[in-house]
Predict the 3D structure of the following.
Amino acid sequence: MPRPRFPLTLALLPLLTATAGADDNKLDSRETGDRAIAARRVLFKHCRECHGDAATGRLTVVDHGKLVDPGPVPVAFASRKKDSPRSQVVEFMKDGSMPPGGRERPSEADIKAVEDWIAAAAPGYPKAFDDPTTLAAILDDYERPEQSKARPNLRYVSLTELADRPDAAEAIAQAQLKLQKALAPHLAGGKKLQLTPVDETATLFRLDVSQFGWDAPDLFQRWSADNKAAGVFRMVPFDLIHLEQPNPPAVPANLAERTTDALRRMNAHRRDDALGQLRAAAFVRGEWLADALLTKDGKPTPLADDLKSLVQLAAVLPKADSLPDDKRLTGPAYPPRSADTKPTPGASPFGTFTAGDAASDAAPFAVTAEFLIDGKPVREVEQSTMFVLRVKSGRAGRVTLLRNEPEFGFVEFVPLAADQTRLTADAAVNLTSRTNPDGFAVDTLPREAMSGVVNYALFVTAGDRAPTVIQSKHKYNPVWRVVPGGDDPAGVVRLVLPLTVLREKGPKK
C-alpha cells in the first residue's frame, strides 16, 4: 500500500528523518519518503500474503497505483488527497478485521505508520527496492521530453539498497549527509548542492555533472606499449567514478534496449570501444560514492583529488603553452604504497594502483604472484639486482605488467619476453624482461634516498585484448588509469605488488 520512497535526500541530518507530529502540509521530500518506507514495511508484512502479487480482488498493497485508485467505493483504500483522511486499510486494521484469522496483529506503532503515510497523501513506493526497479525509474525520468537538452550530462545516484534495512530511516539519513559532504566541495563556483529526487521515495537522485565540471572532454590520452602518448582517449572526469564502482548494476533483458539507448546518449563523448571498457552504468550507488570521495575522517580520497585536478586542468589546458608553470598543470601526488601491504587481488574496476586497490568484489579467478631471487621469495631488493616475477593463474589469459615509481610520478609498461605474454591455466611462469632473460632490475632511486618503493601492477585478462593505459594531459604528476580490456571487462584480475628497493643491503631480519 504505502509507497516508501528511495531514501536519499541530501539535507541536514535532523531534517532527514521523519518527525512524529510534524505538520503534514510542510513535509520535505525526506520526511515524506520516510513515511512511505515505514508504511510499505507494515503493509508488506501484514497484508501482502492475501493482497500481494497474486491478489484476486481489487486491493493489492504491491501495486501502489491500484492501491490508491479511488474506484467505486465510499471510502478509498488509501487516498492521494490530503483532505481525505479516511482509509479503509487503516479502518480494517483498527477494527481487527484485517489481517484475518489468527495472523499477527499490527502494533499501535504499525497502525500509526500507515496513518502518517495517509496523512502525507499516500506517497508512492516501488514493488521492490532492487536494481531493475531502480533502472526502470531512471529510464522513465531520462526519457521525459523536458530532459532533452540536459540528457548528455545527466547521471543518477541511488540509495535504494538501504531502504529495506530495519533501520532504514537512520541509515539513509546518515548516508545522505555523508554524500552531501562528499559532493559539495566539487560544485563549481561555490554553488549550493541540490540533488533532485526522481521519485516520491527520494532515494533516487538526478545529477547534472556539468555543475561539477565533470563533463570536460579530451583530458586523457592513451599510453602505448612503448611508453609514449598515443592519441586522445575520449572520456570525461565522471568516467573515473564508473571505472572504480564495484558491482555495477546489471541490466535485465526487458530493459536492455532502452538502457543501451540511454547509455549511448549519456556517453556520446566516448567511442564505442571505450563505452564497453569503461563499464558504463545507468546509476551509481550513493553509499559507495560517498565513501569513494571522502575518508572516514572527512578528508578527500585520491579519487576526489583526481577529479578536482582534472577540473583545474580543463580550465587551463587551452592556454597551457602560455602558462608553462601554472600549478593547475600539475596533477595530484600519491603517497607510495607500503611494501608491507599484502598483494590484494581484485576484479575490475582498477582505479589508480599507486593509491591502493579500489576493488572490493572478489576476483573472477585466482592469480598469485611473488618476486624471486635465486628461487627464493623476496619483498626487497638491492638497486640494480636482478629478480623475476613468478605468476600462476587459475585461468588461461593474457598478462600485462606495469611499473610505477611514486617518487617520480610515472607509470610505464614493462616489456615481457615474447613467449610470456600468454599464461596457461594453473602453470607457474617466471616473467622476465624482453631485453634481459635474467629478469628485471630497478636502477633508479630518489636522490640521496637509501630506499624507495616501486609498485608493479600485474593484469591477467581472460581474452586477447590487453588493458588500455591512459594518462591525463597534466605536465607533471598526471592522473593514470588502467581500463580493462577483453570481451569480458569483468574477466580481469589485478595484483598490486609493492617492492622495496635498497641503495645498499639493509640488515637481515
Q: What stands out?
A: The radius of gyration is 27 Å. The chain has three domains: 13-119, 131-316, 334-502.
